[in-house]
Write a structure and sequence with these properties.
alpha+beta, three-stranded antiparallel sheet, 34% helix, 16% strand
Length: 110
């Protein structure tokens, strides 16, 4: 029960635009030169709400597998406005996983 509560609260915190803009600025080369205020309107779909509107977090396209994303959204590319970047955030509260992270990373990258 405690792990479920921690997971839920982590997802809520990560869904705030202020948290995501700080992460994007620190972790994404395309956003390092931008201020936090410049990053906010790049989050799509754009809204005045303080939380990110996530895309469908469930993926059933792979037969026999159900992938659930914690947070999935589109970022308009800051250097090429006609392009976009798909951002997937997944909170990990454990160090031992039931799957190999490189395999999961390959799936997400594909």
């Amino acid at each position: 029960m405690e792990n479920h509560y921690f997971d839920t609260q982590s997802k809520i915190i990560l869904s705030f635009k202020s948290v995501q803009t700080a992460l994007l600025q620190q972790c994404l080369d395309e956003c390092k030169h931008l201020s936090l205020h410049e990053i906010v309107p790049l989050i799509q779909p754009s809204s005045s709400h303080s939380k990110i509107i996530t895309l469908n977090p469930e993926d059933l396209r792979m037969p026999g597998a159900r992938i659930i994303y914690d947070l999935l959204y589109v970022l308009q590319h800051p250097l090429h406005p006609d392009r976009s970047i798909l951002i997937h955030i997944e909170a990990q509260g454990e160090e031992s996983y039931k799957y190999h992270l490189p395999r999961r990373g390959l799936y997400y990258g594909s």
